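Exercise 3.2. Students should predict the tertiary structure of the chain below and write it as structure tokens, then compare their answer with the key that follows.

Predict this chain's 3D structure.
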Amino acid sequence: MGSTDVNRRDLIKRAAAAGLVAAPAMGVLSACASGGGAGQEKVEKAEKTDRNPLGVNKSAPLEVVIFNGGYGEQYALDAEKVYERDYGRVKHSATQKIRTKMQPRMVKGNPPDVINNSGGENMDIASLIEDDQVADLGPLLDAPSLDDPTRKVRDTLMPGTIEKGRFGGEEMYQLNYSYTVYGTWYSKTALERLDVEYPKTWDEMLAVCAKAKKQGLAGWTYAGKYPYYLTFAMYPFIAKIGGREVIRAIDNLEPDAWRHESVKKAFEAYHELQAKGYVLKGTPGIDHIQSQTQWNKGRALFIPNGSWVENEAKETTPADFEMAVAPPTGLDSSDAMPFGTIWAEASEPFMVPAKARNVPGGMEFLRIMLGKESAQNFTRLVSALSCVKGATEGLELRPGLASAMKVLEEAGDNVVTPRIHDWYLQLHKERIGGAMAAMMAGDITPNEAVERCQRATDETREDDSIRKYKHT
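Answer key:
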């Protein structure tokens, strides 16, 4: 992170300002404050050619770190084999503790060449970018695509992928490899057994949950230990009620954004699920895997989640489950946006650290992942869309993914893409997620949850140490 004469106190200050030393609620990493060397020496670049457009040194090793979560690691291992056909060997590792394992290395200046910065312990990339710790992926975007040298990589990406990787400028720092459809997930079989259809209005949702309760079933469960999962349904619900401009105001940290009437109505609706006993008992204390398992066992009808869930929950999903996703249930006929409105976006972030030894190799690895061979392999393995256009052509899709594609197609232009989780990670996960958790546990009222969210937003807006972003 600088010259060798940086002392320990200065290093701590710089790391804290960049968000590299986590706040107490995120888990203090004392190891991040040690070291302070000049960083690792970069490998010498090779000459750029048609077959090697990024100038990868074929004698240089590559290090890749993958988040071993809902998508597993096999898709990356397979892409690494493709890389090794033409370039150096790949050192591979996988973990669910990205922040714990990677932050110390980022601070010390010896990061790997590619990081899949995902999961509940992902690093705050906005802070990393602010501290010049992440490489601009412009050379990757302008390189010829793996399958068609007449097309640049940028021209092969799904709409919104490039924009999602930007943070206040034209540079793209983050490649979001998957294309995720968020919403309310359910079992078609479970609804058929209950003799109900997926509810489109909140009165219908309450009626379905009441019928389920009479059968000894819960209407809902969610990842209580990671309550930001609730936002996968809550953010598009808010947009449906009040329009996409409400989400933009929340993203922009505007005063009174959370006090908008649509937010209050959305919070009141979800709180009613808790108040009427329609949430699976014990939900506030379980994690995403446990909540998905309970859902798979038929103990709850609905769960807010993303399209990675089909792969993540496959070990506990019954053969006749018929997994499906639907747009979050709307409020009523007064909604500003139609029922089909969803949250969908490029997700599952990858980055190439600026201080990596083999930056060209890191970008070449991502170029390989964006080739048709790797993109189709990803979909086959994990039942998820990639950010590569047309990559599902000719593939047989599992029920959940086929449902997600159908929902995405039917949404048309009615797709919302909140940015608060990218721009202000701690605000999104801890402060807003925490307020929703307290409300759904019955500890605070919807109005109190609104005020907590607004207070946290105001504090973030007024904190000069945090870089601010705005929709343009």
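Discussion points: Residues 446-462 form the longest helix (17 residues). Strands lie at 62-67, 90-95, 114-116, 175-187, 218-220, 300-305, 323-326, 342-351, 385-386, 415-416.
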